[in-house]
Write a structure and sequence with these properties.
alpha/beta, 7 strands, DUF429 domain-containing protein
């Protein structure tokens, strides 16, 4: 179990980090008030920086915005290993072209309207299939992210045993954002960074500060520049990593109840933290 005052991280991930599009990491702690206190935001424009981050000594818990697993249906279709470490090694031994060819062949056999396989967590979260390689390239995110978690030896609850002082959970900021504001709040293109999206980012930021969202964890931040960036960053990267930080805090508060994950999750699929099965009961709310 993590000690009190463990560092929490929220990670907005990209499968191709660069100076223009870095991996963005919010860090903070849960205070005695039950709120998550945002301390800083770091940006990693290269894999070297991200890999060094994963090896920082614990105790820490990170919520990462990329799929940790693949749909079991696809795993069985392609004869991949049904343990997480074996699956990650098998899939990441493929080139991107090879993985895409397998995904394309699988999709070609499926009926219209059901072209992609999904994990059990994807439907309630509204997340894309990890077998998708474009718009967004979630498959590449799995390939680049999962293998680095495995190489770093972190602990992935329900999927893979590792260093219990460095805990990695799958997050999805879009799920939490849509529970607050229905409209779009970000765009990679400057032309898409509209007043309407700015207004939505401001609404999201205010809701996080008030704790008015399904996870109920309020955000605190004494750094006005960070608060401003949550709204002013039109790409949404700053806000997304903070949304992931809130999901990390919710999980940390439930560290004695499996981080709030379902009791049984498929170890090749994983589960997005904070997303409930329809029949689930939150032990801290009942």
């Amino acid at each position: 179990m993590l000690r009190p005052m463990s560092t929490l991280y929220g990670i907005d991930f990209t499968s191709a980090p660069s100076a223009r599009k870095p991996i963005t990491v919010a860090s903070g702690v849960v205070g005695a008030d039950g709120a998550v206190h945002l301390r800083r935001v770091e940006r990693f424009p290269s894999w070297d920086g991200f890999e060094a981050f994963l090896r920082r000594p614990g105790p820490w818990l990170g919520a990462f915005d990329f799929p940790f697993g693949l749909p079991r249906e696809s795993v069985l279709e392609h004869g991949w290993p049904t343990d997480w470490a074996g699956l990650v090694r098998a899939v990441t031994a493929l080139s991107r072209a090879e993985f895409k060819a397998l995904a394309d062949a699988e999709r070609a056999q499926r009926p219209v309207g059901d072209k992609y396989t999904h994990r059990a967590t994807d439907r309630p979260a509204g997340s894309h299939s990890p077998m998708k390689c474009v718009n967004p390239p979630v498959g590449w995110m799995f390939m680049e992210g999962a293998r680095r978690l495995l190489d770093a030896g972190v602990h992935v609850p329900g999927m893979h045993g590792g260093d219990g002082q460095r805990v990695a959970l799958e997050a999805y900021p879009g799920w939490l954002a849509r529970s607050i504001v229905a409209g779009s709040y970000k765009s990679e293109a400057a032309a898409g960074q509209t007043r309407e999206r700015l207004a939505n980012r401001m609404l999201l930021s205010e809701a996080l500060l008030r704790g008015q969202h399904p996870l109920g964890v309020p955000l605190r931040c004494d750094d006005n520049a960070l608060l401003e960036a949550m709204s002013s960053d039109g790409t949404g990267d700053t806000l997304d990593c903070v949304l992931c930080l809130v999901e990390a805090a919710w999980a940390w508060l439930r560290r004695d109840a499996g981080y709030g994950l379902p009791l049984h999750i498929d170890p090749v699929e994983g589960w997005i933290v904070g997303v409930s099965r329809p029949e689930a009961v939150d032990p801290l709310r009942h």
